[in-house]
Structure formats: structure tokens, C-alpha cells
Amino acid sequence: MITTKLYNRYQTVIPFEIRKKISVDPDSIVEWTINEKGKVELEFRKKLTEKDIIGLIKEELPYNSVEIKRRSGKGLDWK
What we know:
- With 79 residues, the chain is of the alpha+beta class.
- It has one domain (8-73).
- Helices cover 25% and strands 18% of the residues.
- The protein has three helices and two strands, in the order αββαα.
- It has helices spanning 16-22, 50-53, 65-73, and strands spanning 28-34, 40-46.
- A two-stranded antiparallel ribbon has the order 1-2.
- The N and C termini lie far apart (52 Å).
- The mean pLDDT is 83.
């Protein structure tokens, strides 16, 4: 068992041995859940970027991606 301290603002460190074994990096996302027995479970996943999702949608859509990005950056509806 490896233990870590909970610091100010409820931060902690993921020990090197664990980071190495599960291949996490500073851009990893930690998902927290509490299972049916009340135990905390953690899951690590990589943060998706625009580059990661480009090309995932194969269907041609009648939208202007530059306009969608501009409007979404301003909090406007893109429809």
C-alpha cells in the first residue's frame, strides 16, 4: 500500500510508481466514482484535444466549422 498526504485545497500527489504503471501525465483526467459498497474508485483517461477528435465524424455536414468555433467561443448557439 502506498499513502499520500492531502494538502491545502485538498490536493495530493499520485506517487511515481503508480504514475509509471498506469501511464498518466499532467494532461490526464481523473474520474472519481463511489461504488455500491461505498468505496472510492478512480479512473484515469487522456484529455481529448481538437486534434484527437478531428476526423472522427465521417459524415459531411452543411456547417461552417470556423463559424461554429467563433460562435461557441462567444457562448452563442451554433445552429
